[in-house]
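Hey,

The postdoc asked me to send both predictions to you directly instead of through the lab channel. I've kept everything plain text so nothing gets mangled by the mail client. Protein one:
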Amino acid sequence: MKVALIAHDRKKEEMIQLAMAYESILAPHELYATGTTGTRIMENTKLTVTRFLSGPLGGDQQIGAMIARNEMDLIIFLRDPLTAQAHEPDIIALLRLCDVHKIPFATNMGTAEVLLKALERGEIAWRTVVNEE
């Protein structure tokens, strides 16, 4: 499966902790991340991550393009709900694309862990379900 890992600045350390704790679950999958998040994950784990631009510079949109092409399976985006983001419209667009294309999308540590546990158990097999067009 293709998994995107994104984190706002104040949530990057949480993302590193998540990647370290769930490294064995993430390892067999294709991982994608926005700029600094991807770099930090690779510096702190043995995971290989394809990195895009930083979120504010278009990385969120690059991941959104993969979603639109049906090339992304799961998004973990640890958002900082207490800090205004200059690229908020890009974030909302990413969330909307996930809703339209039925992509599982975690925005906090609790839902991220639930999705990763489901991934570990092989319970995220939504691509085998016929999509309604």
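Protein two:
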Amino acid sequence: MPGEIVPAGTQAGRGQQSAMRASHADRDRVAELLRVAAGDGRLTPDELDERLEVALSARTLGELAGLTADLPAVSVSADGVVAEVKDVLRIDQRWSRVRREGRWVVPRRLELSVEWCDVTLDFTQAVITQDTLRIDLDMEGKTLTLITRPGIVVDSDGLALEFSRVRNRRAPDSGVPTTLRVELVGTKRHGRVVVRQSRGTAGRWLPRRNANG
């Protein structure tokens, strides 16, 4: 059916289809399924990173099939965006980096419990379906980096800092309405919180000056 990803193990059994060359769209769909599975707790962050690396370099549908054979089907919209938004995404990690980037689906709440891990949440291409994201933080050491785009604001007033600091690089007012408010609450110990705009979009939204003015 259109708008549905079937289990990849089923695809692999359809004659010669597994030997067919994979397209960019095929890789993107599998990558999205892997991200949703990680959000459901079916994959660990390390497993997600490993499978994403393979998915993005896969040459055939058969290679992609092996990455999702142990995962359930997920319904997606016509443009490949996952329709279901998770209420809570929990990430519990020690001693390894955590990174969310690309077209990942922003949950309604994110619970981060990490120790000595660099954490990067890149909202540049993220799929946003609500106006507020609450991040409950329990983080020891290293740096939490939030990469935003115009229309995304970060409020860290509810965050308790212990031997830590926040650096929020606020961009000039671009006139873009707020589409997402990120609320940081909880505790950050021994490290930093850095909020910055994507380097690729920092100047793109600023009003152009009249060259004759």
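Summary for protein two, as requested: Residues 1-15, 75-83, 202-213 have pLDDT under 50 and may be disordered.

Thanks,
C.
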